[in-house]
């Protein structure tokens, strides 16, 4: 249960940073911002895994928060292009 709460909190922070980096107005509430951050983290982790595999036994990728923000920015761009 604590892992889920932590994921929402970190996802919200990543979503806020991504929304601050992307210029323009987004009409999103708390849950949509957290969702963008969480899905952006998954996208960023996938991209980071393609570039360089984490060390064996490592819980996190070294570029974790940076790649999460990049993934969230990519997702925001795709959402804007889709008109959502």
Q: What keyword list fits this structure?
A:
84 residues, mainly alpha, 0% strand, globular
Please explain how this structure is put together.
The protein has 84 residues and is mainly α. Helix content is 73%, strand content 0%. The protein has three helices and no strands. Helix 2 packs across helix 3 (64-82). The protein is globular, with a radius of gyration of 13 Å. The chain starts with a helix and ends with a helix. The relative contact order is 0.19.
What is the rounded distance between the termini? 30 Å
Q: Assess the beta-strand content as a share of residues.
A: under 5%
With helices defined by DSSP (H or I, 4 residues minimum), what is the helix count? 3
- Summarize the biggest pleated sheet: none
Low-confidence residue ranges: none
Structural class: mainly alpha
Looking at the structure, what is the overall shape?
A: globular
Mean pLDDT: 82
Number of separate strands: 0
Helix percentage: over 70%
Rg of Cα set:
13 Å
By oligomeric state, this entry counts as single chain
Helix and strand pattern: HHH
């Amino acid at each position: 249960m604590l892992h889920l709460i932590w994921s929402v909190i970190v996802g919200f922070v990543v979503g806020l940073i991504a929304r601050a980096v992307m210029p323009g107005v987004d009409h999103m509430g708390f849950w949509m911002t957290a969702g963008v951050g969480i899905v952006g983290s998954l996208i960023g982790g996938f991209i980071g895994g393609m570039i360089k595999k984490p060390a064996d036994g490592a819980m996190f990728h070294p570029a974790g928060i940076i790649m999460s923000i990049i993934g969230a920015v990519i997702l925001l761009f795709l959402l804007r292009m889709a008109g959502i």
